[in-house]
Predict the 3D structure of the following.
Amino acid sequence: MLYTTFRKAHEGGACASSYKKYAKHVGGIRKFGKDTPVPITEILDVLGVDDAYWCLYSTIEPRSEAQYVILEMDAYFLRHKTETKLELLGATELLRGLLTSHIEH
C-alpha cells in the first residue's frame, strides 16, 4: 500500500479544492493531523482517480516504490486517450488493484 499525508500533498502543490474536500471528509486537518498517513486507495474512493494518480507523486514512501504503479497508469492512459465513463472506471479499478497488491518492483 502507498500513502500520502496532508503535508506531502501541500508540499507537492495539491489542488486547493481537493485538499479542502479531503480535509472536510476527515473532520479537518488539525484534528486528523498533517502527518497522518492516508492510503492512496482512500484518496481514490473520496476524490477519484485523477487525484489518486496525482498523489502517487507525493507518497511518504520513496518514489521508487510508487514508480511501478505510475508507469502502469501512464500506459493505461496512453492506451485510452478519451475519458468515457467506462475508461475512467477501468482506470479506477486498475489503480485500486495496483495499490492493493502493491509489491516492491
